[in-house]
Amino acid sequence: MQEFRPKIIAFYCSNCASSAADVSERMKQKISENVKIVPVPCTGRIEILHLLKPFEKGADAVCVLGCQEDSCQYIRGIIQVKKRVEHVKKILEKIGIEPERIEVFSLSASKGDFVDVINKMIDKVKNLGPIY
Amino acid sequence: MQKGKILVIGGGISGIEASLQLSSLGYGVYLVERSGDLGGKIPDLHRIYPICSCCKLNTKVFSCKQDPNIKVMLNTEVESIEGEFGKFEVTLKEDGNFSKINVAGIVISGGFEPFDPSVYENYAYSHPNVLTSLEYEKMQKPFSEGIKRPSDGKVPERIAWIQCVGSRDINRCDAPYCSSVCCMYALKEALNTKEINEKIDTAIFYMDMRAHGKGFERYMNDALEKGVRLVRCRIHTVEPNGDRLILRYVDEKGEPYKEEFDLVVLSVGLRPSKETVEIAKKLNLELDEAGFIKTDLFGRTNVSGIFACGSVCGPCDINQAIVQADSVALTVSSLIEPEPFSSPERPPEIRDIKDEEPKILFAYHICPEMKEAEERIERVTKDLDLVKVLKVEDIKGEISSSIKETSANRVIFASCTPSVHKKTVEEALRSCGLNPYLYETVDLRLIETDEQLKERILYAIYRLKKDLPLPVTEIPVEKHALVIGGGLSGLEAAVNISEAGYPVTIVEKTGRLGGHALYVKETWDGMDIKGYVRELISKLEKSERVNIMLNTEVERSIGTAGRFLTTLVQDGKRIQIRHAVTVIATGGEVARTDEYLYGKSDKVYLWSELSKKLLEEPEFFKSIKSAVFIQCVGSRDKDHPYCSNICCSFSVKTALELKKLNPDMDIYIINRDIRTFGMKEILYREARKSGIVFIRYDLERRPKVEEKDGKLNITVFDPILQRDILIEADLLSLQTAIEPNTNEISEIFGIAVDQDGFFRESPEKMKPVDSTKEGIFVIGIANYPKDAKECIEQARAASSRAISILKKESIVKGGAVAEVDPGKCAVCCTCVRTCPFHVPYIDHSRGAAYIDPALCVGCGICVAECPGKAIKMPYLSDQMLLQTAEILLKE
């Protein structure tokens, strides 16, 4: 059987998460082809529906990569999206999808953890298996 | 007036900032840097206190390199400087080749170098596991090897920091001053170590913990909470013991201790850059006793036409270096008429492209070593719907000429960190008469396969073809400045802006100008501050361009950089003014207290009262036999968890003043730490030499004050004697916290304050006088307590930045902004409550919420929260976000 390679949509903000990506790039890390990264000015823009839609279109997981709560360029963006992700988790549970398939992460350039959190997500979803 | 271009020597943060500011004031700038890149010491740092803003440096470095009015000259040294003010002839040397340039003025920003600890045998610096703080910081960077013991690569279990290595020491290293930044960087390094691995024991050995700046005290408390140990002592020897190192010390009680560590970090002090001092000597520039370049308040050296800023003039942190650089640019502009390399052209009108077929230009910018990425781009873009694929160096120039050549009407810009190039791409589009927001970026990072890149480009193409037009507004700049607050900082700003030729309205709440500065005899270094303030006032009163409004308050203000409309109230009368910039300098007040018999005994003074009395009745103090100062009264505690910065220097300075009036007076300064940072340390040394007694106390054991038989009886526990001592005093001065006057003003202008109530700086952290809203500058005590010199520097920096806005004819706004559809808006106020920047308001004439596109920062939070879906963001529409998965997951 072919190895399961989860399809993941990752929204990332153009501030802290982007800086973290910079560090990852300098560490010569790569992200797997099945992970699609989508830049947004601030993760606060992302709505519940935007987070649910990828599941309908065949994504195995969705993640949101934003700022540290105390360093958000837009002050509350990351806090707002965290609430929405919590809500999406509940919806997923109701329709029989594991809530772990959506996560939000606070990144920082000093840790350069962009690829690390994505890899963690991949591992988690690998354990869960394909969504359908 | 002299006219010409400017040479900036040194490409660290102060040189970068000075060049950018000079360029925005209209100068052509040669920026000369000895090393291979700009940035100075910052790229070597792991983080900058308190959050990471290394990434913000990149934006500035990049702006320098792309600015047509800044010629960045790397690997270049100054060989010689001939001539005089207005006509300097400078010979530069690059790779053995010589070239000559002519400039009217020179700014020296050569920065610092870390102290070399090898002169001390006792610190065992030759041992592999003894590092300097800079060496340790490099180890902390995420792409380094990680924190390891150099001798054997083991992860250290215990790390010690030794403070004041090459600072506050006149015996071995000739540094009578405090380097001002080491306490904070040691805390930062220790705290970051804890964050990486909390099991590592971190101990900082220090004499006084100087956490004197904005937010520093909170940072220190946080470090303590997370387990960073602070040990008060002066370490004299580091003893190697195999791979480990032994530290022996005695605590305040005289108890001896011995601890072993895997790593010892020497918190080395700051020295002026050797190479720069060489240049300074050749130019006959005056140096101070510590070897830093001596300048006046405005950054002028003793040689006319030569200026200096940043850490080459004395130890300072990044914020202050930026402030000084902006201030120096202003000084230059008051003495030299600008001469640019190329003058800006007025761009053509923005053309409507609604009916044009989309034609997309693909431009990419990569580092020379990214050969692989370049080949991949060439392969992938071959069969995509693009009019041209172009590798760019000069982003603005090459994109605009390619747009003209291909008549493209949209751009995709790909690079490693596209967000730092946005402004330049926007300028390129605008210069071709296109809406500046007709572009998308593609991130070239973390790509493994061609398919990945192709997907990202296709997604950008998809978005570019969607929803048009994007909102764009051009705001004509109102050539008028509003300054709020008539104290030292406000006055300085008003004078500078008016002298640059712009009308200024200065508003003061009370009936007179001058603020607290009128009650200060002189600054810590002897400057007559009230004389200086009087001079500023008389300049303003004489100026035709200045409108002074006393007994006036601000009622309301709307708008942004370029266009504000503010309502003022004077004697019950409402007056509206239009202005392009707002400088807020509302100052602060000394907090009152009910501790230590204040208000009950006439011998107890608040420090502000003492200062006034000293000025008005110096004779009074001749009869005083014993005076006591208590520091941190209701300060650095739960109610005021910050350090008010200037109180230690005030007490030391005033104590010396009292000693001068009455040499027999006994003076005691009861303190928690003496925070006489920087050159003020010299004053502290003088005070100890003159017999002033310093006694330390803890929050758990505060001094007690009673009044008996016409004398104050002050009991304090002396940690060295380990017993209570009793002081009989005739006078007690209480140094209470400084509280900011920011409450109402921050609400009226919709700008943020920090946890302690002081105005917050721009979230970018590299703009120390910019508020959270564009075009509003926050300076002086209301920004954070600071001494007169720093207030003046901040006011000048703000003036400098304000003038660069006032100079413009118009400001372009728009792009990624939110827009309310009045038909769908149910006036529920969700957006009004959600917006972190207080932009939306209910416009009753439309019966709907309104978001000013000029003020919107484009985060999209309101768009996502609006329950009626009445707010749109064409730049990142719902449709785009909903189709993301469909496009990207297409097999």
Note the topology.
The complex is a heterodimer of chains A (132) and B (891).
Chain A: E1 8-13, H1 16-26, E2 35-40, H2 48-56, E3 61-66, H3 77-94, E4 102-106, H4 114-128
Parallel strand pairs in A: 1-2, 1-3, 3-4
Chain B: E1 2-4, E2 6-9, H1 13-24, E3 29-32, H2 54-66, E4 70-73, E5 76-84, E6 87-94, E7 97-103, E8 105-108, E9 112-114, E10 130-132, H3 133-140, E11 158-165, H4 182-196, E12 201-206, H5 216-225, E13 229-232, E14 238-241, E15 244-250, E16 256-261, E17 263-268, E18 270-272, H6 274-282, E19 306-308, H7 318-335, E20 336-338, E21 360-365, H8 371-381, E22 388-391, H9 395-406, E23 410-415, H10 422-431, E24 439-443, H11 450-464, E25 472-476, E26 481-484, H12 488-499, E27 504-507, H13 529-542, E28 546-549, E29 552-560, E30 563-570, E31 573-579, E32 581-584, E33 588-590, E34 604-606, H14 607-616, E35 626-633, H15 647-661, E36 666-671, H16 681-689, E37 693-696, E38 704-708, E39 711-718, E40 723-729, E41 731-736, E42 738-740, H17 743-749, E43 776-778, H18 788-806, E44 810-814, E45 819-820, H19 830-834, E46 841-843, E47 848-850, H20 861-865, E48 871-872, H21 878-888
Parallel strand pairs in B: 1-20, 2-3, 2-8, 3-4, 8-19, 10-17, 11-12, 11-17, 12-13, 21-22, 21-23, 23-24, 26-27, 26-32, 27-28, 32-43, 34-41, 35-36, 35-41, 36-37
Antiparallel strand pairs in B: 5-6, 6-7, 9-18, 14-15, 15-16, 25-44, 29-30, 30-31, 33-42, 38-39, 39-40, 45-48, 46-47
Helix pairs in contact in B: 1-2, 1-7, 3-4, 4-5, 7-18, 8-11, 9-10, 11-21, 12-13, 12-18, 15-16
